[in-house]
Design brief:
Layout lengths: L2 H14 L17 E7 L17 H8 L2 E3 L2 E2 L5 H10 L15 H4 L6 H7 L3 E6 L13 E3 L12 H8 L7 E4 L7 H19 L3 E7 L6 E4 H4 L28 H4 L12 H31 L6 E7 L4 E2 L5 E2 L5 H4 E2 L1 E4 L7 E3 L3 E2 L3 H8 L14 H5 L8 E6 L2 E6 L2 E8 L2 E9 L17 H16 L2
Parallel strand pairs: 1-7, 1-9, 2-14, 3-15, 4-5, 4-7, 6-8
Antiparallel strand pairs: 2-13, 3-12, 9-13, 10-11, 16-17, 17-18, 18-19
């Protein structure tokens, strides 16, 4: 090795070893894989790939056959802005960071090297279409950040809803009208993303194309043909549609996100008829987005980009459809924390499922590994590549999530939550997911589970105290 090669090698090692959160890592000389990153707002794992047959989702099912499905993937905080900020920075939410819907990377962690900036530093063209960060322009390093709307993100099309909004009255919680897919914003988003794929192929540079679909976020607006996929008489309310007596009141919330809408009572539960309509609307919205995902995947195939593109499909958090008498997210119950996650990567396993636990904070280091770029030192998650290579094995056995004062530890068997104030425990929940996957029987105060509670509490508080 001559002097100049030695000097260059030393400089590379210096950059890789840099401890700043804004560290830059030099390009790996190997061919870079593209990344198509699809995030679906409020998507719960009530999909055929998870053994749930109620929702029509053939395109998500097709994607799953080309990759690995994570059965036990969890968000780190069940609220849009905070969840997305955590994922894109690789940092966990804390008592002082990434807590609310309007969490801001730019304000809360301005020095952190985001996934977007890191990929751009490594030669990637980066494009964000529609909702990737919750706040517009919260990451400045995108080569392009596009939205299908300037205002009015609720995207009403019916004359009544538009009129209500113009007069300062909240519209209805759903919309069922006979329009084409791209009349709504998610259809426009798919169309724009397909055009981007064509341009990105011509460009020849590796790309990170992030596509954010807003549905099934409220209001449940979807073209009529997706509502027509379902027979209303077949739609059932969840069996656990009342709040369990064994759960603490700390686990309740007022589902204010839904109460915002005109046809929803400000207090008390919705009628069973309205509940069925809302569930119907949620299903229709998921099927609508599934169709848009199918268009993207077909374009990837038609453009012959599939063999060199990592495709990731993920929800930013779950969503309650009247389970435990609750609606929306904003809780420490599994239905709000569990998310769908599919990773389809060239040269990895296909049509497999894994029970190895995953967290959204793991996606940043996973993408680094799949694109052959170094992982920044600030990352708090773990790469999921081992699980992609060996889906039958378990490489991670716990996950952590928080919402407000509630801190949750999820293991291969249990979900344990504590609500704390000034280091004092206010309430607890413990659920055995092997025996009680729907979390109806809180075991935290039962004498037979005291040792289990004590051991999980120690592990949970070690994690809390390390933040």
């Amino acid at each position: 090795m001559n002097y100049y090669k030695l000097l260059f090698s030393g400089f590379m090692m210096f950059l890789i070893g840099c401890k700043s959160t804004k560290e830059k890592v030099m390009l790996n000389p190997s061919i870079k894989k593209n990344v198509l990153f699809i995030m679906v707002d409020d998507l719960r794992p009530q999909l055929s790939i998870y053994g749930q047959q109620q929702i029509v989702n053939p395109n998500i099912e097709m994607l799953a056959k080309s990759g690995v499905v994570f059965n036990k993937a969890y968000c780190n905080v069940p609220v849009c802005g905070a969840s997305r900020a955590s994922l894109l920075t690789g940092l966990r939410p804390t008592k002082n960071q990434f807590l609310r819907y309007n969490a801001s990377i730019k304000k809360e962690t301005p020095e952190t090297l985001t996934l977007v900036e890191h990929l751009k530093n490594n030669g990637y063209t980066t494009i964000s279409n529609n909702k990737i960060t919750h706040l517009k322009y919260d990451i400045e390093e995108w080569d392009e950040e596009w939205y299908p709307y300037k205002k009015g993100w609720r995207n009403y099309l019916s004359e009544e809803n538009i009129s209500l909004e113009k007069n300062g009255v909240h519209g209805y919680a759903y919309e069922n009208i006979d329009v084409a897919d791209d009349a709504y914003n998610d259809g426009k988003t798919a169309k724009k993303s397909i055009e981007d794929l064509k341009k990105l192929k011509e460009n020849g540079k590796p790309f990170f194309l992030a596509v954010g679909f807003v549905k099934p976020h409220l209001p449940f607006n979807a073209p009529k043909k997706y509502w027509d996929l379902y027979n209303r008489e077949d739609i059932k309310l969840p069996e656990n549609n009342t709040f369990p007596e064994s759960a603490p009141n700390w686990a309740k919330h007022n589902w204010g996100e839904l109460r915002y809408y005109k046809d929803i009572p400000k207090k008390g539960q919705v009628s069973h008829e309205m509940a069925k309509t809302l569930i119907h609307g949620y299903y229709a919205s998921v099927s609508y987005v599934d169709a848009q995902i199918g268009k993207l995947l077909k374009s990837l195939e038609d453009l012959k980009l599939k063999n060199n593109t990592v495709v990731i499909l993920v929800g930013d958090h779950g969503w309650s459809l009247m389970e435990h008498s609750l609606w929306a997210k904003h809780s420490n119950f599994n239905v709000a924390l569990n998310v769908p996650l599919i990773i389809s990567a060239p040269n990895n396993k296909i049509n497999k499922k894994t029970n190895s636990i995953a967290e959204l904070v793991d996606l940043y280091p996973t993408i680094c590994d799949l694109t052959n770029i170094s992982k920044p030192s600030h990352l708090e998650g773990n790469s999921l590549v081992n699980a992609l290579n060996n889906p039958s094995k378990s490489f991670k056995n716990n996950a952590f999530a928080r919402y407000q004062k509630g801190e949750t530890l999820i293991t291969e068997k249990y979900a344990y939550t504590e609500w704390q104030k000034k280091s004092k425990t206010l309430a607890r929940m413990l659920y055995d997911h092997h025996l009680d996957p729907n979390e109806n029987n809180n075991l935290a105060e039962k004498a037979a589970y005291k040792k289990t509670v004590d051991s999980l509490s120690i592990l949970l508080n070690q994690k809390i105290n390390n933040k």
